[in-house]
Design brief:
Layout (H helix, E strand, L loop, with lengths): L1 E3 L6 H10 L7 H20 L4 E7 L4 E7 L4 E6 L3 H10 L4 E11 L5 E9 L7 E5 L2 E2 L3 H10 L7 E10 H10 L4 E8 L1 E2 L5 E2 L5 H6 L6
Parallel strand pairs: 1-10, 4-5, 4-7, 7-9, 8-9, 9-10
Antiparallel strand pairs: 2-3, 5-6, 11-12
Helix pairs in contact: 1-2, 2-3
């Protein structure tokens, strides 16, 4: 399943406009906050697709029945660009466990690169929902490699992937590799440029959130 949660006009459409617009991208706090809020919208939508069970509780006046999550999810993010999106998701799933992956483009030439991973921390994923946050789903390579690395920690009951902007190519790659994954996006762009950046996209999400990095 691929769900574009800004295809219907809503506040997400406004936040997406501000994220893409070079005239508003200079406000780093607003940029991070918009990603955070989109993460909250994604969390609510994902919550509607998770399994719940009946439970009994006691109010100050009487016993009653409620619905509760069968299992708390694990929320994973690819650092560093994924942190604001992860924080938005975690603010709704505030009893979730977390996983962190350090992955980046290791350039071989100006247009060629491999995905390097230098760090991973993850709880047991067995039979738990996995929600994986990365703001830009471009080639799909880092997402596929990250999923493979996480599956070492157990087989999730379901995988949800959240991105701010995805390329159609990246979605196709992920769906081919993980056909049962649910993909939630703020927008789908059709083009990748020579450097494998999404066009029109919004630029480098990590740099816009946290400042430019030196390349080594």
């Amino acid at each position: 399943m691929v769900k574009n949660f800004s295809e219907q006009d809503s506040l997400v459409s406004e936040w997406m406009r501000e994220l893409r617009d070079v005239n508003t991208q200079g406000n780093r706090e607003q940029f991070r906050n918009n990603i955070y809020k989109i993460g909250q919208v994604a969390a609510y939508n994902i919550s509607c697709h998770l399994p719940y069970a009946d439970t009994s509780i006691l109010t100050p006046l009487a016993a009653t029945h409620c619905r509760t999550l069968v299992s708390q999810p694990v929320i994973a993010t690819i650092m560093r660009a994924g942190l604001p999106l992860y924080n938005g998701l975690l603010s709704y799933f505030n009893n979730a466990d977390s996983a962190f992956i350090g992955a980046y483009r290791q350039h071989i030439s100006e247009t060629e690169f491999t995905i390097a991973q230098g760090y991973i921390a993850c709880p047991d994923l067995s039979n738990r929902p996995l929600i994986l946050a990365d703001p830009m789903l471009a080639t799909g390579s880092s997402m596929v490699q990250t999923i493979d690395s996480l599956l070492v920690f157990g087989q999730p009951s379901v995988i949800h992937i959240v991105a701010i902007i995805a390329s159609q190519h990246g979605i196709d790659i992920v769906r081919r590799h993980v056909p049962n994954a649910h993909i939630w996006v703020g927008a789908i762009d059709n083009e990748l440029d020579a450097n494998k950046y999404i066009v029109p996209g919004l630029g480098d999400a990590g740099d816009l959130c946290f400042g430019e990095k030196l390349q080594h």
